[in-house]
Amino acid sequence: MIFNKETAKKTAEVLLQINAIKLQPNNPFTWASGWKSPIYCDNRIVLSYPLIRNYIRETMAKHIEAHYGKPDVIAGVATGAIGIGALVAEYLNLPFVYVRPEAKNHGRKNQIEGHVEKGQSVVVIEDLISTGKSSLNAVNALKEAEVNIKGMVAIFSYGFDVATKNFHDAKVELHTLGNYENLLEQALDTNYITKKEQDILAQWNSNPSEWNAN
Question: How far apart are CA 56 and CA 131, in angstroms?
């Protein structure tokens, strides 16, 4: 679920502006999964642009306050959401922790880095949602620490059906600043892509694992 359409379009605008999102329907990228993709998203670039990172931070923080009140802790999903998660926690004057993909095999063998206590309320911050598996892996680690997950807030989601199902099955509420549908609208409105390219990008989104640029 996006915050609102105005926020989604503004988020798309700034992410395209700094090349955090690149759209190349005629020269697709190859993801680590092997999927061919006409889009590549790296929202960590946001941290290098103070005005844009402040927009992301403040929009996320204000939504958290409006929707959840003030949780006890903000948690970022490593590695992509550590930076923006810490900024949101700072804005809200809240403690921050981050969650590794798996526990370390040395030292204290932590998966959760930072201090969180049983029963505390937590909002999880993520930079990007694809299938949702890595995001929900972090949620599961927090649940094992017996905290109360209020929900997750992310910068952008590809809007895959599998992600919707995964979050629904996990009973985790997800809100995002932007999504794929509004990204394509913004890209078309600003002549970043043509109508033909928009159609190609929409086809990919409906079946990304089987999409072929040729």
Answer: 22
Q: CA 118 to CA 210: how far, in whole Å?
A: 43
CB neighbour class for 178 (10 Å; exposed up to 12, middle 13-18, buried from 19): buried
**What burial letters (b/e) apply to 62-90, b meaning 16+ CB within 10 Å?**
ebbeeebeebbbbbbbbebbbbbbbbbbe
What pairs with residue 123 in β-bridges? Answer: 74, 151
* Cα–Cα dist 116/118, whole Å: 7
Residue ranges and CATH numbers for the domains of the chain are 5-206 (3.40.50.2020)
Helix axes 50-68, 5-17, angle to 10 degrees: 160
- pTM for the full predicted model: 0.94
Per-residue pLDDT tens digits for 132-186: 999 999 999 999 999 999 999 999 999 999 999 999 999 999 999 999 999 999 9
From residue 205, how far is each of 32, 38, 201 by CA, in Å? 17, 9, 6
Q: How far apart are CA 176 and CA 56, in angstroms?
A: 11
Q: Which amino acid is at 40?
A: Y
Q: List, in order, residues 6 or more apart from 119 with CB less than 8 Å away.
A: 146, 147, 148
CB-based contact 91:115 (threshold 8 Å) = no
